[in-house]
Specification:
The protein is α+β, with helices and mostly antiparallel strands. It contains four helices and three strands, in the order αβααββα. The protein has a three-stranded antiparallel sheet with strand order 1-3-2. Strand 2 and strand 3 form a beta hairpin. The termini are far apart. The mean pLDDT is 90.
Length: 84
């Protein structure tokens, strides 16, 4: 059975939601995390790149699992960007 595809939120939607409910309450999937880390909706990092960076240890962000899907808090992603 194929997996259910979820539409990817734009950066504007992500940061608007972060302002509304708080950045620690927004969970990002790998596609959305790639857009946040690259800073662009047009040229986001692919989910495979995110997975490889996690595997090799170059992307050390806490992961929250919802089902089988790894999710990252927006607040953790923003703190990671500021530390670089």
């Amino acid at each position: 059975m194929p997996r259910k595809k979820h539409p990817r939120r734009s950066l504007r939607d992500i940061f608007t939601l972060g302002n509304d409910i708080g950045t620690e309450n927004v969970l990002l999937n790998d596609q959305e995390l790639g857009a946040v880390l690259s800073g662009s909706d047009a040229q986001p990092l692919t989910p495979g790149t995110i997975a490889n960076r996690r595997y090799y240890g170059t992307l050390d962000l806490p992961v929250v699992r919802t089902g089988r899907t790894p999710r990252t808090r927006l607040s953790d992603a923003l703190a990671y960007i500021e530390s670089k």
